C-alpha cells in the first residue's frame, strides 16, 4: 500500500513567522530583565506597520520598538519603512492570582512544585518517531531543511536576487509504512523583479535542494515546482498580513500528529500551551528512544490555576512493545507534569525562545526538551511495572 505524507515550512521572512520571531524576541528581552516575567505577546505585521499587543508584566523596562527594529533588520526588511505600534498592559490580576498560587497551594499543598498554577486550560500534544535522527516525520525534517537553507543562501549571497519571504513543501511516498522516495518538492521564494524564473529554478536546485536532500535524495521522477504561481516579487507584510501563532503545524509536526490549538511564540513558560507541549515532546522522545514504540503521541490536559494536569495519556499508535497503560504509569512516576517542575526541569526561564521561532520548535539541539537524559529512570520504572 502506498501512502503520501506532506509537510510545509516557511522562511523567517514569511509574514506569520516574522511575527513569531518578533514575539519570541520580546519574550527573551523580558526574561533577560526579569526571569519571572509574565508575557503573552501578540504581533501583527501588515504593509508599513508592525503592531505589538498583549500582556507583559516585567520588573525591568524593555524597549519593544528597538527589539522589533532589530528583528526586521536581521530578517532582511528595512525597519525605517515600518510604523511600530505598541499596545501592552500588565497581566490580569485574576489570571496572575491563579498562576502565582495554584489551586493545590490554596488547598494546603506547601511544595514548591505545587505553587504555580497552569496559565491556561487546554490539551497539549507531544510526538516522536524513530523515522529520522531528529525523531520527527521525514517530510517535516526535509521541509525545514529547505527553508533554513533558503534563508542561509540569501544571507550569504550564494543566490543573487532573493528576498526574505518564502516557503517550502515536501511530499514523501511511503510503502508499507516506510519512506521510499520524494514525490514532490515545492519552493516559493520571493525575488527581485529582474530575476528570471529559469535562473531562480536553477539556482534553487543547485544551492538549496541538493544540500537539503543530501541524506534522502530526490530522483529523476520527483516533481520539483519552483514558484508555481509564477512571479513572486511582492511579498512579506506588504503582500500578506502576518499574525503570531498562525503556523502551528510548521512549529510542531507538520500536521502529521495531533495539535491542541495553542500557539507557542510570545508566551512565557507558565503558559502550558508552550511548556506542556515541550514536556509532552520530551516524554514521547523518551518512550521512542527507549525502544518501547516506533512512534508515540503524549497528551496532557490542564485547568487554569491548577498545577496537576486533569488528564494524561500515552498512545503508541499500535507500535508499542509494552502496553500503553504501563508506559503511561511509568511516565507519571518519572516525569513531574506540574508547571513549576516543567519550567525547572527544561530550563524554561532561559532566553532561548527566539531560536525556537523558526524552522520548528522540535528537533533542534537548543531545546532541553529534546534531551533524553532520564531514559534510564524511565526504563527502570517500566521494567518494575512489567515485572
From TrEMBL:
Gene3D superfamilies: 3.30.300.10. PANTHER family: S-ADENOSYLMETHIONINE SYNTHETASE. This is S-adenosylmethionine synthase. GO terms for molecular function: ATP binding; magnesium ion binding; methionine adenosyltransferase activity. The gene is metK2. GO terms for cellular component: cytoplasm. Residues 91-101 are annotated as: Flexible loop. Residues 235-370 form the S-adenosylmethionine synthetase C-terminal domain. It comes from Peptoclostridium acidaminophilum DSM 3953.
Amino acid at each position: 500500500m502506498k501512502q503520501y505524507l506532506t509537510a510545509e515550512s516557511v522562511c523567517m521572512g514569511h509574514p506569520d513567522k516574522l511575527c513569531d520571531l518578533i514575539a519570541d524576541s520580546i519574550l527573551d528581552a523580558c526574561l533577560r530583565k526579569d526571569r519571572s516575567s509574565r508575557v503573552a505577546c501578540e504581533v501583527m505585521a501588515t504593509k508599513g506597520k508592525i503592531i505589538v499587543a498583549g500582556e507583559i508584566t516585567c520588573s525591568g523596562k524593555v524597549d519593544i520598538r528597538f527589539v522589533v527594529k532589530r528583528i526586521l533588520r536581521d530578517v532582511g526588511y528595512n525597519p525605517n519603512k515600518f510604523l511600530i505600534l505598541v499596545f501592552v498592559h500588565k497581566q490580569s490580576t485574576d489570571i496572575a492570582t491563579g498562576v502565582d498560587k495554584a489551586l493545590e497551594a490554596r488547598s494546603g499543598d506547601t511544595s514548591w512544585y505545587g505553587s504555580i498554577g497552569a496559565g491556561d486550560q487546554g490539551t497539549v500534544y507531544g510526538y516522536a518517531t524513530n523515522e529520522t535522527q531528529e525523531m520527527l516525520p521525514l517530510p517535516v525534517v526535509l521541509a525545514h531543511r529547505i527553508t533554513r537553507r533558503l534563508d542561509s543562501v540569501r544571507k550569504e549571497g550564494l543566490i543573487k536576487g532573493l528576498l526574505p519571504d518564502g516557503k517550502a513543501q515536501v511530499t514523501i511516498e511511503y510503502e508499507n509504512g516506510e519512506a521510499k522516495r520524494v514525490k514532490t518538492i515545492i519552493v516559493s521564494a520571493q525575488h527581485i523583479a529582474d530575476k528570471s524564473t529559469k535562473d531562480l529554478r536553477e539556482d534553487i536546485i543547485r544551492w538549496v535542494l541538493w544540500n537539503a536532500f543530501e541524506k534522502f535524495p530526490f530522483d529523476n521522477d520527483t516533481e520539483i515546482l519552483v514558484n508555481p504561481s509564477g512571479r513572486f516579487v511582492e511579498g512579506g507584510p506588504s503582500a500578506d498580513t502576518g499574525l503570531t501563532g498562525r503556523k502551528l503545524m510548521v512549529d510542531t509536526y507538520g500536521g502529521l500528529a495531533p495539535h491542541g490549538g495553542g500557539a507557542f511564540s510570545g508566551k512565557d513558560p507558565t503558559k502550558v500551551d508552550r511548556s506542556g507541549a515541550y514536556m509532552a515532546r520530551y516524554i514521547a522522545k523518551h518512550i521512542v528512544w527507549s525502544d518501547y514504540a516506533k512512534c508515540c503521541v503524549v497528551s496532557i490536559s490542564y485547568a487554569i490555576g491548577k498545577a496537576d494536569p486533569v488528564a494524561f495519556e500515552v498512545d503508541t499508535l499500535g507500535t508499542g512493545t509494552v502496553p500503553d497503560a504501563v508506559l503511561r504509569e511509568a511516565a507519571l512516576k518519572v516525569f513531574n507534569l506540574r508547571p513549576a517542575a516543567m519550567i525547572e526541569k527544561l530550563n524554561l526561564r532561559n532566553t532561548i525562545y527566539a531560536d525556537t521561532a523558526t524552522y520548528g520548535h522540535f528537533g533542534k539541539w537548543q531545546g532541553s526538551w529534546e534531551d533524553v537524559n532520564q531514559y534510564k529512570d524511565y526504563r527502570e520504572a517500566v521494567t518494575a511495572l512489567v515485572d
